[in-house]
Predict the structure.
Amino acid sequence: MKLLVSVRNEVEAAKALSGGCDILDIKEPARGSLGRSDPEIMEKIVQLTSDRVPVSAALGEFTDFVSQECIPSLPSGLSYKKAGTAGLRNVSNWQSKLRSLGLGSRWVAVIYADHADIAAPDPYELFELACEIGSAGILIDTCNKQGGRLPDRMTHDELTKWRERTREAGLFLALAGSLRLEDLTSVAEVSPDIVAVRGAVCHYGNRTGEVDESLVRLWKERLATCNSQTPAGLGAH
């Protein structure tokens, strides 16, 4: 399992790297679960860090730009990109519209565990589309951060089945959704490829606060312990 840390600026990016994160994710938490950062911030972070670790970026929700029939401008050097699916179920022909965006192999499909509450498409339809367009992986997250954490919204068995599906399809699996250190034992049993955090590595557990290098390091150490206990053959696809 690799550790992904979401950061909002280059200062946080430096702290996340010093703490040992494996993947950097750029987003603006004040703008939602997958809030899009300003272009100049994305550019600075990519320039500073993309030669050290893979960098991903959140683009907000598909409904923010799908009607424009193009993906927002992004800096070169990104390893992955993703957008949320809240409200997409209410968009007519949403599958065709997503296909027309030319998402490609750097795209990470987002499945919201609270999809029924936010008019997001059925997770299985999203999964089928992700396989069809050759996405890199699947991120299971929560959209409403006040509506329950991932362990509250999906059972261990459900997550394990998603692990099996993604492995069979050759996609990586990332888990997020206000995860806490005490969740790691259960998460490790699912054996996702990536564990993604923001609030858990911020001061006072506040996702709109500042990333704390010592908390990133603690998560990295705990993940290393979990990885050492993972049976051979599990984990990365």
The radius of gyration is 16 Å.
